[in-house]
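[job 0417] fold request received: Peptidoglycan recognition protein
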Amino acid sequence: MRGILASSIGVTCAAALALPLAPPAAAADARPAPTAEAATRAAVTTEADVPGSTQSLPLHLLTRERASGAAVLGLAPRTVRNFSLLGVVWDDPAAELHGRVQVRTRSAGTGTWSGWQDVETHNADHAADPGTAEDTSGRVRGATAPLWVGPSDAVEIRVRAEPAQKAGAGPGSAGTPAGGADGIPLPSGLRLELIDPGTAAPPPGDAADGPRTGAMSAEATAASAANAGLAPLGAAEIPALTREQTQRELLASRGAEATEAAEAVEPAEPAGSAGPAGPVEQQRAKPYIGPRPAIVTRRGWGANESLREKGFVYTGKVKAAFVHHTATGNNYTCAQAPSVIRGIYRFHVRSMGWRDIGYNFLIDKCGRIYEGRAGGVAKPVLGAHTLGFNSNTMGVAVIGSHSSKKPSSSAVKGIARLTAWKLGLNGMNPKGKTYLKSGGGNLYRKGKKVRLNVISGHRDGFNTACPGGKLYSKLGSARSTAARYQGR
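[job 0417] inference complete; emitting structure tokens
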């Protein structure tokens, strides 16, 4: 049964006035005091009583490459309010950024500048399905992947348009003619988004520590209540169960559902009758399901529930899991993972215009599992992770970039533990295949039924490099391990 509750919240980005620094590295390390005008604007644009913030800075033409005439847009080195994650957005979500985005940042702790880092430019494959309410809200923007840079207080960025010959497209591509006569036009409205994820949440304890204290907003209460039966209201973590405990929990749930269904269509059998096995007895077969892993809740990683849209959107049975990487880089510690998630969450909602974070679950390099989109970890929450295949699936994102770097064995094990449990709730074999109907994308037309692995990589449903070749090559191991956890 599909239930939909939705309401809109405006998407705003607080613009900040930043002070340009001299381009040379030595001068760039200097920290000029803010002017009175800059300080006033910063105070006005800071969001009151909301942890974290977003600075949105328009990009300008810096120069044109002499050989091709292609534009280079960006910003000269400048001091800004503290941030830890960044990305680039533009007006038209259907437009692609053909070019190279590079940034360098200044550490707020040491005052030293990083080297130039590349930002993953193609992010349109992570999105709500075409034609859905989330896709057609009018708030959605095109975007790069976000990049985690750690606590920083200055930034420099350059965006080089890709030559037409390399991109294989002409000047009629969507966007402005910023690419020049021989370059692919860059999308219009390019802006650099600088995300402060807010104060780090204290690490969640075990179940014995009980729920977090403190008043909860209505939105936070609803998000926590969606996990009723799994953890107390306000809990920072859903505790792990053994496989036997998980099986008993599932059988009890199935039995209650079967009893309700039977009572709704037929009268109860008289006591002592010896009729055929009823719905309850049929549910008593030992299920194939892995032990429920510990899962850090949204309250555990410090989600600001006022950012997302109210209400939850559900899909049908979870028939498959799509594995992703966040492409946010690998320069984070496991203690920083909640901050990285808060940054991605704010980028998805405030900068990109989505109703909530796109992934259903996230896993850090230490193998710790985090609740993603709100609505309940055991429920079929509709995400925005695999364009065309968000219905009847779940999206699992490993925090990091895995095109050239292998994922940790702990992260791969985390995928197996999570999918063994969640797919087991829905009776799915992690080593099996299933049919999914495409919602439309660049690999499969809308309405086409596609046979895919129950645990698939993002690239299986959309023409993309995600989840990176090094992570994609580990999915076979994740499938086998998940099936073993299920007792298959």
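[job 0417] notes: Confidence is low (pLDDT under 50) at residues 1-50, 167-177, 205-209, 268-282. Residues 243-265 form the longest helix (23 residues).
[job 0417] exit 0
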